[in-house]
Amino acid sequence: MSGSVKITIKLFSALREALGESEFQLDLSDISEASALVDVEAIKKQLSQRGAEWKEALNQPNLVHALNHKVVFTDAVVTEGDELAFFPPMTGG
Amino acid sequence: MSVALQSEAIDVAAEYAQLVGDSPGAAVATFTGYVRDHSDQHAVTELELEHYPEMARKVLEDLGHSAVERFGLSRWRIVHRFGQLAVLDTIVWVGAVADHRGEAISACEFMMDTLKTDAPFWKREQGPAGDQWVASRDNDTARRARWQSGEAQ
User: Fold this and answer.
1) CATH number belonging to domain A6-87
2) A-chain residues near B61 (CB < 8 A)
3) Interface of chain A against chain B, CB under 8 Å?
4) Domains recognised in chain B with CATH numbers
5) What residues form DSSP beta bridges with A27?
6) What pLDDT, in 10s, does the model give residues B59-90?
């Protein structure tokens, strides 16, 4: 397979504010070789390379990850067209 | 039997009338949440509520369906606001219709306890001391856990 494999990353609340971005596209072909599976952990590692503030924000212990609008663990596999969101614990109601 | 996400104030009387309709059933319970004028440490004058629209709708719809399965509701409704809110504004309203009061009251508590920790909304308090994101509370997590462990029914 060649070409790009894009997913959408969304950030909310204090994470959005700290990193100055709310939504962007990420190309998975930059992360993995050909057929290797990419999970949430691999994406966190990739994004952590953007700088100290990214590393700190994405590695806080209570970070929540939602894949296609469902909360998941870091071993969830991400594929083309997915929407992956990172945010702090929710405080609605 | 639906979810509303809205920036405008919640018309509690209209919501109640719509929930009950022409046939109220035997038991109707509702809960209304308002913006407090204080947090644990300081005064609050305004509240900003950020949300993740697509996920919030899905989580709240799933929550309503769970409440139907769990408590045998004949009708339910969840309304949650987002955006800029003033002190004493309504933030959230839930309603449940069942055959008996126990189910209706428990369903409202279940929906509120669950949406607090599972629905993607984040409060940012504004006041004389400045702005700050509200931290999640251990008490909310504990109340949510009661429904998963079976301690609350």
Assistant:
1) 3.10.20.30
2) none
3) 10, 12-14, 62, 66, 69-71, 85, 87-93
4) 2-149 (3.90.1170.40)
5) A6
6) 999 999 999 999 999 999 999 999 999 999 99
